[in-house]
Amino acid sequence: MINILAMLIVTTGSLLSGGVFQVEHELSLNPLGVSPEHSMALVQLASKTKKATAQKAFDSPPKAGTKAICPVMGTEFEVTKGTVGSKHKGKHYVFCWPGCKPKFDANPGKYVKD
Fold first, then answer.
1. What pTM was computed for the model?
2. Would you tell me which of 5, 44, 66, 76 could form a disulfide with 30, CB atoms 3.0–4.6 Å apart?
């Protein structure tokens, strides 16, 4: 019987803000014959190289192509010319879709730490 190690990796909000993978389940499946030690090393390497470079707040409106994090949804996205944003306490925030803007504007303190 082939010993297979499959890692079900679930990314969390922490991936967006800090770049950490959480290993949720470990199964015994491994068609390539990769040892459990090597599998874990690959997961650790991926977590180190997949650091989020996006940010949530900007000092000025971000330009198209900038990576950002939507303060409402927590998702990472790339700013486009059509991206909507809001200003709160001197910082600029952009949203992954226009429906996030009214939610943020109604209660910014819910989505950002002052």
1. 0.55
2. 5
